[in-house]
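Why does this matter for the project? Reviewers at the last site visit asked to see concrete outputs rather than summary tables. In response, this paragraph embeds two records directly. Each consists of the residue sequence and, immediately after it, the corresponding structure tokens. Nothing has been edited or filtered.
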Amino acid sequence: MENDKLKLTSSEIGTLWGEYVNGTAVDIVNRFMISIIEDESIKAIFEDAIKTFEKQKQQIVAFLENENFPVPIGFTESDLNKGAKRLFTDIFCLNYLHIMTLHGLLGHSTSLAVSVREDLRFFYDSCDNDGKRMYHQTIDLLLEKEVFKETLYFILLKTLNTFLAKISQMDFSERVEC
């Protein structure tokens, strides 16, 4: 069936609204952070993130308007306090963008999974590709700056093994009555 004959489903409308509202929230934070970031390599990734979302936002608006569906207000420049003092380091900002990229990847995949229309599926594929590109950029820069925080899995495994070794040496043969 042709896309022009398929109406957006309620799931598709919900994902478009969610992508728009979440995207505009992250975009406003990104716009604040780019105004305080001093490191040019981090600033460049934020510029890319802002441009990427602007492109995605225009596509979301087009999907909704083509269906005569209202566009959410979302977050706007009026929500941005341009005169606010610096609260975050450049590295914190980079970590924030990395984590928001992970959330975006999950959101795009979920949105794709509930989309029926081919044009919307291709849109979410494109968003996912943008997210993967941003993921590589953020993690590469975190690694380059030697500030990537690895998971605690190996530390916890070593601690667990030490704990289990101590327990295995304990004598549990005596019964304690309460």
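We now turn to the second protein, recorded in exactly the same manner.
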Amino acid sequence: MLATSVYPAIWPFWGIAAFGWSESTIGLTLAAFGIMTAIVQGALTGPAVKKLGENGAALVGLATAAIAAAGYAFAPDLIWVLILLVIHAPEGIVFPALSALMSKEAPADAQGELQGGIASTQNLSMLIGTLLFAQVFGYTMNQFIGTAFLLSAAMIVVAIGIYLLHRRQ
């Protein structure tokens, strides 16, 4: 969640600075991503988990998130952003898959604590990430406008590495 807080932190500012987007273009790109994520979560999570398992589905979602974040850093125009939004959509599988894995590990009488801990961690990550990515964007936008997205992609790659190491244990 920390790495993906780059989107609410900088998306509008990045769209305006990189492409001269209007408010309506910003809103439409956010709506397009929301719709695609909802479709993936609602229609594709079950089949993805059935085919790949929860671990595999989570890894696919994380990999597409890293690819998309890096892609946004170098996107030359709106068409590429729209293509990346489609590539990015399977990230919507990650939370349901990881949540299911965590729920299986927690005893029945600790499910509320687990869900509360997850929600608290998400909120804290969003708070920290918003501050982090806004500062990175503001500080680096004149050198390379995609730095915050590259940082997000790197964080996701590190998360994938940690996840894979944890799975082996």
